[in-house]
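Question (not urgent): is this output format expected?
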Amino acid sequence: MRRVPHVPGVLTEDQCDKTGAAIAAMQEPTGAMPWFPGGQTDPWDHVESAMALSVTGRHPEAEAAYEWSRRTQRPDGSWAIRTVVGTVADANTDANFCAYLAVGVWHHYLITGDTRFLERMWPTVWSAIELVLRFQAPGGQIRWGGKHPLPAAGGMFSDAMLTGSASIHQALGCAVAIADEMKQPSPSWRYAQLRLGHALRAHTDRFAPPSDHSMDWYYPVLGGAVRGRAGQELIADRWDEFVVADLGIRCVDHRPWVTGAETCELVLAMNCLGDDTDATTLFADMQHLRDPDGSYWTGLVFSDGKRWPVEKSCWTSAAVVLAADALSRTSAANGIFRDADPLVDVTVPAAEVPGLSCDCTNA
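Got this back:
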């Protein structure tokens, strides 16, 4: 029997299922999951939407989305940053966009247990992660992107960004799990995650300074690099800057604009810290963005009460489903974020891993 998440007093099972149906209705015949019908598709939000399809039991649609990823991957392991109805609109490469496929593939496998799916997607994941590691700097941080085609070696890359690197931290953990399941363990991926996590915890100066966007605030927790007391302190530090009572969280700290996806990602981050009480309150607060058809508006400018942008984004609805799954612990993959704890491998001496040159432990 298909089980769909529900959060008592906030979101019923039928409502969550209706959101899954709204996400599926936006899928293009190619399997692509655009931001909204006729809008752009990017590889990261595409995967997030596929994950919501898996959670709501729409496995054929989810697998069609992953098949789109497999089919459109370029020979170097990358994807174009943006396509619009099958036409490439930005051909450059974003490392985080490429890495996130590993999270989605592992998530779908946890739910379905389908080894044939995992075997089919394994070469795509392998190529993507190998490509991503070309962006890792000696200090462990991962630069966000570069021009396509990428140079064979060296060349100019952009700065490392906190949000993207924190997301890649989780993706590397999922990639390691996939490799282990395929009986093809990859120590270099494990070392890369160790180095990245260390940089995110102990050397934030190696990244571009945190911006006024909320994602730079909570993503180190969401991606698993910072947990425990350190994670609680990180969230508390900027809580008053971003959280708007009864509405959700701001996307940008100085603008009167709350957004659904960021609010649900903070819900997920707080769930990772064991704070389901405040997380559920936030989840309830953002439900004003729900449309009667089950989809969710992207955001609200609360100074004038207007929804902006005037679009019901696929990835906002997906974030709602994933947050509901984490809070309700419904699907077999409900811990995909919660279980992304800092990777600690005591069998690997720090001296043997480039980039781990100091003694740093996470509280």
